[in-house]
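Chain X:
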Amino acid sequence: MQIRLAQAMQADSIVDGEGIRTVIWTQGCSHNCLGCHNPETHSFDEGILKDVDELKQELKSFKNQDGITLSGGDPLFQIDACTEIAVFAKSLKLNVWCYTGFTFEKLIQMAEINPKLSLFLKNIDVLVDGPFVQQEKSLNLKFKGSRNQRILNLKQSLKKGKPVVLKKYRDEKKYIVNNGEEKHLYL
């Protein structure tokens, strides 16, 4: 099986999820979010083809990595290859983060039709979901580009059937109510 990548795997990333990570940049995305920081990954015809078994051996050779991050593009457009990679990463005791322009709610609907998607989701630890929205962009957010995106504990989300945001990555907005009391709103 082959996977279309936007570039070679990148080891030792500290900005694409928690810890020291290897990032797999998939090629192909139809979300075409205005202001996307990876617009060169949108085309489904560009990038490089790589054999998944080769990629797995390369992944196995990297040392001192806490996990992998599937990003791109959108990894969900190459579900078979990305599932195989996620399952392999779990066998190496690596945690798996995935960035997608789809929301958790949409993925649950899609998984009802496509059982391969269910298997993929079961092998993801953290899902950063939702499209990048230019109007919600903030450079103060950790591991995401816009406030509408969520960093989800996917195991808990699947178990509860609703999105469970990792508390340490919730966005906090402070506001004052009529009586002058300070309130906090977590997004």
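Chain Y:
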Amino acid sequence: VRFNGITKADFISRKEFEPGCIFKQMEDALEYALNVLNIVQTNIIDGERIDTPYFDEIAFREAWFNAVCHNLWVEHIPPAIYGFDDRVEIISQGILKKGMTQEEFFSGISKPVNEEFSKIFMQMHYMEQSGRGVPTIVARYGKGAYKFGSSFIECVILYNILDKEKQARMKGKILEQQSKEKLTENQENVGLNVGLNVGLKLSGTAQTVLSILLKNPKLSAQAISEQIGKATRTVDRAIKELVDKGYIRRVGSKKSGYYEIINIDRIE
């Protein structure tokens, strides 16, 4: 998925790959991401042309292949690549294998979630037994490139933008967004979230989904599931709960419609 700017507010395009061999899909997604997202910047230094891509191709490849191999496929949510103006994010559903520490993860110790799948990856030379993938990424982008959620692992690769003016604009946008997010969080803590937690008696997931739909009622269950890192069927249950309790209703078709918030006074 490609976004305009540094947040998911301004959607550009979504690219999905035809059902078939998962390795073919994985390679196609890699090629597409490298061609579309990894912009090559050209400078002339002392008469010599120097090409500098936005991000390291080898590190990105390792992060993407790891995400596919270790994705929790039983949740029916595929791994995803999100492109922004300042970074690319690779999301893999699931967490570290039980008993594995983050220290072991960063050191390259291999404890695959999908053991048989991992063997096929190695047999087809997509991965190595040496476990150099994560250390390669960490050596280039640091441990801070990884974020461990409650149900997902995210690798964030920041772009190496050479244009100083563009860098300054990106930094300004990031600071502005952080300020907005902090303000929104404070407002929600004293406003919306209080109403959700005290007045509506909804489940935690339903509260989260309602908060998202208040901001963008056109989002699909799949889009919400990607945003909050939960299975689509979990989001479907939360939406059903909201409908059954009379807080939202569907307007229009499943494909082009949206969710209308009703009984708004009960929320406020």
